[in-house]
Specification:
Helix content: 25-40%
Number of strands: 15
Number of helices: 17
Strand order of the largest sheet: 1-2-3-4-6-8-10-11-12-13-14-15
Shape: globular
Distance between the termini: 47 Å
Structural class: alpha/beta
Radius of gyration: 26 Å
């Protein structure tokens, strides 16, 4: 009888990777508690399984295995005592729940930990005043310093997600001055936002966007205005290819300069519309005016040969709007020019108000979303259907219209439901217009279900959002099982002894990932 342990190493590795989810250079995933549990259990089976599962276990450092400051400090100790563990890390997400209740002070660090991290800081060879500042920050358990110390020992990190207001940029800048190659392998930066600190200046993160391998950036609740635009973002100097902004404010000049600074742009996401009433408050910076769809089109024209994804939605108030007010809003909204000149553009997500009655898209388009549609779409839809049947959009397969009230888009001119028909009948009628084509056309309402999870969670938008993935959710692992596996990763005790130790200590509150055995010297 054959056993799974007898399978070839290559096949086992593929199976384990399937459990851990495919490797990716984005954080568009929902790494559940079950995934981590499965990897922990695999590590317990035998040495061979541990050797294959441990790299996958350490690939993601996120809410599954860092749910408080103590866990973060334990992991930081682990990667300094066993640097090979840090080399496995590719994704680091520091969630907003790391701090406890307002005004709550963490317990003091043990003296051994203070000594360890003081030595670590001194080995960085920072200027004396900066060194003393960092040591004091270690003593007070400043989150920013521990995030920097952790990521300094993860040379293969690809994705870093932190929250403005919880993690500050100054320690990063200080370390870059002494160690210019720090974070040189970073592929994606995500700056979320503590709800207490909206409207931060995106330009303070200028150094991140100048990293040589940074291809994707996401900012939440920030501002970028011309008076504070960083000089280091000069034309043609940034490697970033995917730019994403959620609930941000950017003026037209800043958008143009930022896109000019990028060597190549493949994707632009600017999501300012909230599907929830009284959702995220919009940021307005003095007298600066937010860019509009025509500004985005003009800014992106130099990148027409590479742009694959365009998602632009603007803040609109009031959220609930009557037909006349919405008609006036549409009439005053600058329209998106023809996208014919973008030969590789595959995804277009834009509000109804930004489109002319007969919008033009490139032949490469595959997915079209028309959002925030509060008026009859019949005329526009009729023109698009004719273009589809003429063969102008041979690759278009997904076409979605989103509305607060689905009865509005299906009405006749004058906002009248056809006599004897229900809104459902009208939707089926409009779907029938695409008969004989491969277009899947849908009209759907926004999902107005209040988001579950942490109140500070940024991901309160409707439906699936491929550009702006959410914080990994779900409860963390039981502390004892987590402690057992991290200890085993630190050294290699016998599994029977380890299990006996776990049983004996099952009531312990010690969740350290560091063993009491002798460790390698700090490097």
């Amino acid at each position: 009888m054959s056993h799974i342990q007898d399978l070839p190493t290559e096949l086992l590795n593929r199976i384990f990777e399937f459990l851990a989810e495919p490797d990716s250079d984005t954080i568009e995933r929902d790494r559940s508690c079950n995934t981590t549990t499965e990897l922990y259990n695999l590590c317990l089976v035998c040495q061979r399984f541990r050797d294959l599962a441990q790299p996958l276990l350490f690939r993601y450092i996120d809410g599954d295995n860092i749910d408080d400051l103590k866990s973060l400090i334990s992991l930081t100790k682990a990667v300094y005592r066993r640097p090979t563990l840090g080399e496995l890390v590719k994704f680091v997400t520091v969630t907003l729940s790391l701090y406890g209740l307002p005004g709550e002070n963490p317990p003091k660090l043990p003296s051994d930990d203070l000594k360890l991290f003081a030595n670590v800081v001194r080995e960085l060879e920072l200027p004396h005043e900066e060194e003393e500042r960092w040591i004091r920050a270690v003593e007070t358990q400043d989150l920013s310093v521990f995030v920097v110390l952790l990521t300094f020992k993860t040379p293969n990190i690809r994705v870093l997600r932190v929250a403005h207001g919880q993690v500050f940029v100054q320690p990063f800048l200080a370390l870059w001055k002494k160690h210019p190659s720090y974070l040189s392998s970073l592929y994606q930066i995500w700056i979320a936002c503590d709800s207490v600190f909206p409207g931060y200046n995106i330009a303070i993160y200028e150094k991140f966007l100048t990293l040589p391998n940074l291809k994707a950036s996401t900012f939440v609740d920030g501002e970028l205005v011309r008076s504070k635009y960083p000089s280091s973002w000069a034309p043609g100097t940034l490697a970033a290819e995917e730019l994403a902004f959620k609930d941000c404010f950017i003026d037209a000049i800043s958008l143009k300069k930022l896109i000019q600074a990028c060597k190549k742009v493949k994707a632009l996401t600017y999501q300012g519309f909230s599907a929830m009433p009284n959702g995220d408050s919009h940021i307005r910076y003095g007298n600066e005016k937010e860019f509009h769809a025509a500004d985005a089109h003009a800014a992106l024209l130099p990148h027409k040969a590479t742009l694959e994804h365009l998602h632009v939605e603007f803040f609109r108030e009031p959220w609930l709007i009557d037909g006349q007010a919405y008609a006036e809003y549409c009439a005053s909204t600058p329209k998106l020019p023809s996208l014919d000149d973008f030969p590789v553009l595959e995804t277009v997500i834009v509000p109804y108000a930004t489109l002319p009655p007969h919008p033009r898209f490139p032949s490469s388009i595959q997915l079209l979303h028309i959002t925030d549609c509060n008026s009859s779409i019949r005329e526009m839809l009729s023109n698009i259907v004719k273009d589809v049947k003429k063969g102008l959009y041979p690759n278009l397969t997904k076409f979605l219209v989103l509305a607060i009230d689905v009865s509005r888009p299906v009405k006749l001119a004058g906002q009248i439901i056809p006599q004897g028909k229900t809104p459902s009948d009208c939707i089926q009628e409009l779907q029938g217009w695409f008969s004989g084509t491969k277009v899947d056309f849908q009209i759907c309402p926004y999902d107005l279900t209040p988001p579950r999870g942490r109140p500070d969670d940024d991901d309160d938008d409707d439906g699936d959002d491929d550009d702006l993935p959410g914080f990994p959710g779900g409860p963390g692992m039981p502390g004892m099982l987590q402690m057992m596996m991290m200890q085993q990763a630190m050294d290699d005790p016998g599994f029977a002894a380890m299990l006996q130790h776990a049983a004996a200590e099952s009531d312990s509150d010690d969740e350290s990932w560091v063993t009491d055995t002798d460790d390698d010297d700090i490097e």
